[in-house]
Amino acid sequence: MADLRKSGLAVGAAVLSAALLSGCLQSEEGGGGGGAPEDTAEGDGQIQILGSFPAPESDGFEAALADFEAQSGIEVTYVPSTDFTTEIRTRVQGGNPPDIALFPQPGLVNELGESGDLLPLNDLVDVGSIEQTLIPGFLDAVTAENGDVYAAPMRMAVKSITWYPTPAFEEAGYTAPTTWSEMVDLTAQMREDGNTPWCIGAEAGADTGWVLTDWVEEMVLRTAGPEVYDQWTSHEIPFNDPQIIAAAQRFADDIAFTEGNVAGGRQAILTTPFDVSPNGMFDEPPTCYLHRQGSFVTSFFPDEVQSDLAANVGTFVFPPIEDGYDGTPILGSGDMAAAFVNDSDVVELMEFMSSAEFGGPWAEAGGWLSPHATFDNSLYADDSTREIAALAQEGDVFRFDGSDLMPAEVGAGTFWDETVAWVGGEKDLEAAFTAIEESWPE
């Protein structure tokens, strides 16, 4: 990729133009800023993108843009940031935003969309055509009340995955469940066989707790459904709503707190490092047989397991609950592309990155999943990745990690801390979630 950046003068002119267009649209149409298609300026042949993923992770992204650059003649520079949230805010406030930014969390997208700094995606590209191929629900997290959409997903991470050690699992005669009741029965069968079903480890230093909040989010999605999940993460209902309490309690009763269900017992959940916790599946004999974690967890598996994932580990989607949401929800995260400048180059690149055709070279390099249900899975580097992609594509609805949607002082603060206090036995569930509710900023 080109190692050039737009000059400060060019960026300043584009930002000024975008700001003027934003003001016009806000006054004429009410709602988010941005320019209509007829207001798109002629590009200067150069685009700067700011993102949060560094090299070598960014190598696949740059490879995915190589053909675009060659065919369009547009030079694209990717700038990785070690502190994306701070840098993007500083650059926006200083009037020097990038042309496009790749946001790892939808909350910041919405913040800059509401302030009028980001251009609505629907003013640049055909959002309807994007939605036709996306996994359902992906755009909900970045859609304003007036219908403006502020970003397009260009990378997905899937969290609703259950892993198991294929050789030992099959030798024991176990079968991957497709429903919650089947998984509860499988857990009981493993205990009866003298085996420990689950590995759960939540210790992560200053970040201890996020593993547990993921579990709670999974349970809310499955018991109460995506509509209640949205009300919960946006604080339209209180954090300690009875539906949320019931979801967390089901995690405790069916999985975490039942004696014999978790390797090391309930207390070991808080002392076992999250990156070490799945390795019990690969002991001989296994010290656990099931592990719920995101698609990234394979990087923590033993080297000999990683060398042939398809032979060593299997997956099934974290199953739906029969008396809960009627469907299979997928919890995850992703990088979202959003634009600060409305020119023909930016529009062309946003159309490309938001399409189901984007990402082939990145898929072949590994470490990337398309958020589009119609992406060609044969392009992924291995069978395990293809299987995970298919699990997500077959889901009925996608929802972003709830703690990333909540205010930081809750999502990465009291939600983590109070859930740890509950699992550790320092507080009962009602008291812990009430404390989280009381911490929500006004």
TrEMBL record:
InterPro entries: Bact_solute-bd_prot1, SBP. Keywords: Transport. PROSITE patterns: PROKAR_LIPOPROTEIN. The keyword Transcription does not apply. The keyword Transport applies. Belongs to the bacterial solute-binding protein 1 family. This is Extracellular solute-binding protein. It comes from Desertihabitans brevis.
